[in-house]
Design goal:
Blueprint (H helix, E strand, L loop, with lengths): L2 H5 L3 E5 L3 E6 L3 E6 L5 H16 L9 E5 L2 E7 L6 H7 L4 H16 L9 H10 L5 H12 L6 E3 L8 E4 L2 E4 L6 E3 L2 H13 L6 H21 L7 H12 L8 H14 L8
Antiparallel strand pairs: 1-2, 2-3, 3-5, 4-5, 6-9, 7-8
Helix pairs in contact: 4-8, 5-6, 5-9, 6-9, 7-8, 7-9, 9-10
Amino acid sequence: MSAELLEDNLSTLASGASARVCRVPERYVVKIFHAAVSEEMIDREFAAATLAADCGIAVARPVEQLRLRAGRAILYPEIAGPTLMRRMRVRPLESGAMLRDMAAFHRRIHGCPAPGLRALRQVLGTDIIYGPADPALQEAALRLLDGLPDGDRLLHGDFHVKNILMADSGPVAIDWSKASRGPVTPDIVRTEMLMRFGEGPQDWLTNRVRDWAARCYVDHYRCIAPDHFHHVPEWRAIVGLAWLRARAPVRRKAFLAYLNCALTDVGLPVTAG
């Protein structure tokens, strides 16, 4: 499909912090990244989604990278279906079963090796160094990170209910821009945090539902693969501290309480965030 044809037939479906997604002819969509997004991030999304597809994971396999007048972009086949978040809202009584399927899907992703992707250890270390924590806490956290095991599994990095589309054939994982390789446990921990403290509504009822959904997801994953839960307290402290660098100010008080509890559990000083 030519870039000229794409440019003339853009119909925006969704827009986010890093890109907007537009429908184009012949049942494709094009993800156009904002100017501030790095070339490395775009290349990583293309490579990680391709790797996942090669492993047999249900993803939208990237077709090609494009340079449009509107910016750098990736062409994908269109996946019809609502997000898992929307499906859970429409069918709340089925939410438990959907979260069980979500955990099983995440487990399948973690079954894929990803030797060519960036190392999660480096990502976490960089985020801690450039985050807002005091230097003493950063230094102590980096020493803790150095002592944790490495791995070569495919990690999505942003696996939550808005990045899963419910197609007729089953769930499909989208948005692989934060993908990496490493041990499985921190990717599970990050999903738990995203479900509880990620962007979204913050009313008291929704917060209780989000906390329940996060616990339900973790419990289901633990039942499926208990051997994927190693050094959970340490990873919870490290992943939470790294997230301070870029997380949106959503449920800030609750997240800082969660993080400081995690830091205390492994003997690290608390933070004011």
